Structure to design on (588 residues):
């Protein structure tokens, strides 16, 4: 009877439903390319402009992603908003008349004519839907559950790690590592959504997720996660090397069991999330070389530092949603720290780019060529630190979206050629020594 | 939902809690296990609904009060000349958000523990029910083959 009361009271949604737009997958091209990042930027920008209150912080297994799907509280870093074209209502009409007995009245207020953006599926969202799994919808549902676009970005950072490793390129290894990382990321994202159903319902950005909408049962979500995690980690551990497998498993654990609950416990979740984001490139590197050397840690360090300006800037505009949802984020509880940390890590990126040639990963061209973009993001970080307003946070955030792909691309083009054996052995001799002395932030 | 339907139905998000209510289908030959599952889900739903409706209402109310008190301190009215609702800028609101989050921390901790427990229990029960159904179906199949 309790349900009847709700139904009589609340007939419709409070907010306008998110828009869905169909975007083609950039899944083919795994390496970071300009087209790729333009696509990401376009997708993100369209999405962000539509609804500024939606955080685009995609959740990532590793929290690396040029996009930010900020779910408010979750440190979901990648946005995986899937927008589909306005579809005709495919619910049969008889169902609507039967709904009459539930007395669901669509109040005139619901038909917000003043809605800023066209509503893609207004009636569909307000209808009662049968909770039956439709097989033809399953791929789409699973894609959204696993945050497939975020996963794609995660895999691309792992590929960047693989590409930067100073060993001859092995295609099979590369494909196995990419597939394994992708599966691990799918699993982690699914479990994350499984944990966060009531919170996701309350946040604009995430309220159209499959579990929230009842399109899939929690049991199936967990089953899917398990069926991705087991083959994924097995593939990494057996098909690539045990170290990569261990890193993958650890990352899943870190994301689902540490980061996700921590989002509601302490602001330290941001740092944990940054580690989650830093691990995939490290995994790519260890997949190629089989060992954790200074280069892997440097790449991880770059991704780690990048997370902060990216996320902190994004979270600045989502403080209301975070506060209401009970998420502990720096932007809400320690705003000064939030901006300081963002600036600090922009500068760290400068430092890390300079260390790259010292470790023999890239030539000295890299710090020189990347200096402008690193200086620019640091400048925006400083503006954000000083101004602490919405416009500076947005500018920093959007900059972070193109900064990372560009940085990785430049890094790849400045990669130290593998053929220079004498130089390599020289540096390898000095490398470990240097690495020990280095403390990454 | 239609009377002849054999599945659960999920509705649009509730106005206060933003959660989608579910109407559970009670099959005539519901086993004890299935009943436990359904009751667990109903209970979780009711609990979630109560929590979020109350919480969101409190948020909205306290936000209004905060805006009102701040505007009054500034000597402004709730609505300006054109009749538009006066708002505070993001920085002023930030103080409220921080306060609200800290005030409700304990409540959220309690809710989190409760939610995680319920979620695991429900999913585990779902697993058991699925297994029981699968075994039943296999037995039925075997029986049909034999005849």
């Amino acid at each position: 009877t309790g349900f009847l009361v709700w139904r009589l009271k609340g007939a419709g949604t409070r907010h306008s439903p998110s828009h869905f737009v169909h975007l083609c997958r950039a899944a083919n091209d795994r390496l970071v390319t300009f087209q790729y990042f333009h696509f990401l930027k376009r997708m993100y920008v369209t999405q962000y402009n539509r609804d500024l209150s939606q955080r685009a912080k995609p959740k990532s297994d590793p929290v690396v992603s040029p996009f930010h799907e900020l779910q408010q509280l979750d440190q979901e870093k990648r946005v995986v908003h899937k927008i589909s074209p306005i579809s005709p209502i495919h619910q049969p009409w008889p169902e609507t008349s039967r709904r009459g007995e539930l007395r669901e009245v669509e109040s005139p207020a619901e038909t917000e004519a003043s809605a800023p953006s066209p509503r893609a599926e207004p009636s569909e969202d307000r209808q009662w839907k049968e909770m039956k799994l439709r097989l033809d919808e399953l791929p789409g549902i699973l894609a959204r559950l696993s945050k497939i676009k975020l996963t794609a970005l995660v895999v691309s950072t792992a590929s960047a790690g693989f590409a930067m490793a100073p060993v001859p390129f092995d295609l099979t290894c590369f494909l196995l590592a990419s597939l394994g990382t992708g599966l691990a990321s799918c699993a982690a994202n699914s479990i994350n959504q499984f944990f966060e159903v009531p919170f996701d319902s309350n946040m604009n950005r995430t309220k159209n997720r499959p579990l929230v909408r009842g399109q899939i049962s929690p049991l199936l979500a967990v089953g899917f996660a398990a069926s991705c995690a087991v083959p994924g980690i097995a593939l990494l551990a057996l098909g690539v090397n045990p170290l990569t497998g261990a890193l993958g498993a650890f990352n899943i654990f870190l994301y689902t069991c540490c980061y996700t609950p921590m989002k509601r416990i302490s602001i330290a979740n941001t740092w944990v999330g940054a580690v989650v984001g830093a691990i995939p490139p490290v995994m790519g590197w260890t997949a190629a070389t089989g060992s954790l050397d200074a280069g892997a840690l440097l790449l991880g360090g770059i991704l780690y530092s990048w997370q902060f300006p990216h996320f902190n800037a994004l979270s600045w505009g989502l403080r209301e949603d975070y506060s209401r949802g009970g998420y502990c984020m720096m932007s809400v509880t320690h705003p000064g720290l939030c901006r300081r940390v963002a600036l600090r890590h922009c500068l760290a990126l400068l430092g890390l780019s300079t260390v790259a040639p010292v470790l023999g990963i890239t030539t000295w061209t890299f710090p020189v060529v990347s200096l402008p973009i690193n200086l620019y993001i640091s400048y925006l970080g400083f503006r954000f630190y000083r101004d602490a307003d919405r416009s500076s946070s947005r500018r920093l955030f959007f900059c972070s979206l193109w900064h990372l792909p560009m940085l990785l691309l430049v890094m790849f083009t400045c990669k130290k050629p593998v053929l220079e054996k004498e130089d390599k052995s020289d540096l390898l001799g000095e490398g470990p020594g240097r690495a020990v002395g280095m403390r990454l932030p | 939902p239609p009377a002849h339907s054999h599945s659960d139905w999920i509705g649009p998000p509730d106005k206060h809690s933003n959660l989608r209510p579910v109407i559970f289908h009670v099959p005539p030959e519901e086993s004890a296990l299935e009943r436990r599952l359904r009751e667990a889900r109903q209970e979780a739903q009711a609990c979630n609904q109560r929590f979020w409706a109350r919480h969101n209402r409190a948020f909205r109310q306290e936000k209004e009060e905060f805006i009102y008190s701040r505007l009054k301190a500034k000597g402004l009215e709730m609505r300006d000349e054109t009749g538009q609702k006066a708002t505070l800028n993001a920085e002023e609101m930030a103080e409220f958000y921080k306060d609200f989050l800290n005030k409700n921390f304990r409540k959220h901790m309690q809710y989190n523990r409760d939610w995680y427990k319920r979620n695991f229990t429900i999913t585990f029960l779902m697993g058991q029910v699925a297994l029981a159904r699968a075994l039943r179906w296999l037995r039925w199949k075997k029986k049909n083959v034999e005849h």
Remarks:
- DSSP finds three helices and two strands in chain B.
